[in-house]
Amino acid sequence: MKKNILIIPGDGIGQEVTTWGKQVLETVAQAYGHEFSFDEAIMGHTAIEATGNPLPDETLEKAKASDAILFGAIGHAKYDNDPSAKVRPEQGLLKIRKELGLYANLRPILLFDELLDASSLKPEVLRGTDILFFRELTGDVYFGEKNRNEDNTFASDLMNYHRYEVERITRKAYDAARTRNKRLCSVDKANVLETSRLWREVVQEIAKEYPDVETEHMFIDNAAMQLVKNPKKFDVVLTANLFGDILTDEASQIAGSMGMLASASIGDGTGFFEPIHGSAHDIAGQNKANPLASILSVALMLDIAFGLQDEAKAVTNAVAETLKAGWRTGDIANAETAADKILGTNEMGAKVLS
Amino acid sequence: MKKNILIIPGDGIGQEVTTWGKQVLETVAQAYGHEFSFDEAIMGHTAIEATGNPLPDETLEKAKASDAILFGAIGHAKYDNDPSAKVRPEQGLLKIRKELGLYANLRPILLFDELLDASSLKPEVLRGTDILFFRELTGDVYFGEKNRNEDNTFASDLMNYHRYEVERITRKAYDAARTRNKRLCSVDKANVLETSRLWREVVQEIAKEYPDVETEHMFIDNAAMQLVKNPKKFDVVLTANLFGDILTDEASQIAGSMGMLASASIGDGTGFFEPIHGSAHDIAGQNKANPLASILSVALMLDIAFGLQDEAKAVTNAVAETLKAGWRTGDIANAETAADKILGTNEMGAKVLS
Ligand SMILES: CC(C)[C@H](C(=O)O)[C@@H](O)C(=O)O
Ligand SMILES: CC(C)[C@H](C(=O)O)[C@@H](O)C(=O)O
């Protein structure tokens, strides 16, 4: 199989972790006789520094022309502490999601038995958890009109959804539920928000097409609670952009660390694969970042973008075996981990490769 | 001290739990020589059934005339599953918050040592946690303009904040931080939302007036994660209406159960005291609900509305001692709780009273 893969390292630890994602792709290509060619492009703070634009045209063109994109991370504290900054790294990520029509963000909460202890949740609460989040990614309050009045006494963001936006991701989520445990939980705030009431109506309608899947509707506040209380009860979780952002980060604690979670953004064209962790500038360039989420993003790419299930499984297994052998990065180590089992980014990447 | 207290049981388990809140108030009045007089009013589903209006004028008038309000719970599944319902129980709660100017919702996460085991989080993660949430309560996407187009293909809610709305709750939160561990974490999504950028600007400005308090800004996705990962790191958490709704429910798992958490809504006039749990129709009328959140709401009322610190402490201590003696309702029992220590609503209420 011949594929063009675009690597966008982005900001902070993005560079370090995508390096390992790329090496894993190269190893897979060799082992299974594929031809993966690579290109690289800039985005985020890195791109603002170089060009003034968080998503340069050249990056967008390369993205559209590629078969899949491996992304690192985005963001920089400089902008976070300056609420008045007009140009921001995150605009690059939001724009590429919109331009590529990446409306469905899949975030599997994959639990490695070896990491049960790394979580702050009790092992007996965690064991057996297997959740697949479908987060809508190109609508909601993220993309609605923003306003600030002249004298800075008022600001607003429009939260909004079109019916077709809810329909298309709902179908994708139900299709996935069918191949899993046949339970779908749609999360909204329909007791308060009109947007959520439209969301719930659409899900109720489409649910009728999937009588074999058990549907539940849950308010976001309750879902945020149930995820801690009893994560096992969830199978597929379907939700809007903002609620999905919050719930999936919360759920990262189920997997022990954000450093373990990968995501796939899919939609109309080229798929986009990224860890859910951020740019973590505090540890950038120190060989401390956990490369496993980037490597697991590669597994999602192989599976979802290229349909290479065996190759995807091989990558996931390599991660599982590395963990089984006791190797940890700092974020997933616990008090009992022997110091000589704690690895840097590069050593961990190399372990998985071998 | 002479006080008029309005009881609004609301829906579901609201009736059962406020009954015990009221009895605790009566006992306190007797023991400390106060004169508390009580009135009752309807709201929510109960009020819709009786009058067609989730907040009848009579209830609002009584509320305004009272010195403090003890509220139960609101909501009914009937409306949740009918996204097109025009009249909804929750409108009553939102309207009374707005009409009474209850812009600051205080939710203390009070951890009873005896309940460390009832949580899904590990005891070592929990121990020492003591968080006070300040949730803004009369602004945000809760009260912004709602729209639905004619052919039901589009819906929107306006998320918005005025500067003065952010200022007044921020000052209250800083004042509280001063009397506690002098750390304030403001939670927003300033990398995406204009509303959050205004929020952050205002908090940054007011922070200068409180140089003795350490200020941190955190994105909501990160906060949802940190709350599970390391709840101890928080002291005062300040946030907007929607984010506060989500975070405080999530945080209820730190306290072992929603059945343990009380809240105080304060602002321009009469204070409003309520458990954070909902109407829980599935267990309503079965003598199963945990009355402790309602009883702890009474402690908040005594403290915040009436300035009766000793009386408030007596109530909190009575709850702590009941737990220490091993008594539990179903929601806070764990596998090791002896069956004969598990009480119904009324038995638990009576234990606390005695
Ligand atoms: C960086 C930020 C804009 C982004 C989001 O909120 O979508 C991130 O948190 C994510 O979840 O991918
Ligand atoms: C019932 C509902 C409208 C309410 C809210 O979202 O504010 C509740 O969840 C709460 O937290 O008090």
Gist?
The structure is a homodimer of 354-residue chains. The first copy, chain A, has 354 residues and is of the alpha/beta class.
Could you please describe the fold and organization of this structure?
Chains A, B: The record marks 142, 189 as: Important for catalysis. Chains A, B: Pathway: Amino-acid biosynthesis; L-leucine biosynthesis; L-leucine from 3-methyl-2-oxobutanoate: step 3/4. Chains A, B: Mg(2+) binds at residues 221, 245, 249. Chains A, B: Catalyzes the oxidation of 3-carboxy-2-hydroxy-4-methylpentanoate (3-isopropylmalate) to 3-carboxy-4-methyl-2-oxopentanoate. The product decarboxylates to 4-methyl-2 oxopentanoate. Chains A, B: It catalyses: (2R,3S)-3-isopropylmalate + NAD(+) = 4-methyl-2-oxopentanoate + CO2 + NADH. The structure is a homodimer of 354-residue chains. With 354 residues, chain A is an alpha/beta fold. The first copy, chain A, has 2 domains: 1-104 and 261-354, Isopropylmalate Dehydrogenase; 120-254, 3-Layer(aba) Sandwich (Isopropylmalate Dehydrogenase), CATH 3.40.718. Chain A is built from 13 helices and 14 strands. Chain A has helices at 14-32, 45-51, 57-65, 77-80, 89-99, 123-126, 163-178, 194-207, 220-229, 241-251, 292-305, 309-324, 345-353, and strands spanning 2-10, 35-40, 68-73, 104-109, 131-136, 146-148, 154-162, 183-188, 214-219, 236-239, 262-266, 271-275, 328-329, 342-343. A 10-stranded mixed β-sheet of chain A has the order 2-1-3-12-11-4-5-10-8-9, sandwiched between helices. In chain A, β8 (183-188), α8 and β9 form a beta-alpha-beta unit. In chain A, α1 packs across α11, α1 (14-32) packs parallel to α13 (345-353) and α11 runs antiparallel to α12. The longest helix of chain A has 19 residues, at 14-32. Chain A starts with a strand and ends with a helix. The model of chain A has no long low-confidence stretch (mean pLDDT 94). At the A-B interface, β6, β7, α8, α9 and α10 of A face β6, β7, α8, α9 and α10 of B. β7 (154-162) of chain A pairs antiparallel with β7 of chain B. The structure holds 3-isopropylmalic acid (2 copies). One 3-isopropylmalic acid (IPM) sits between chains A (74-75, 90, 93, 245) and B (191-192, 221).
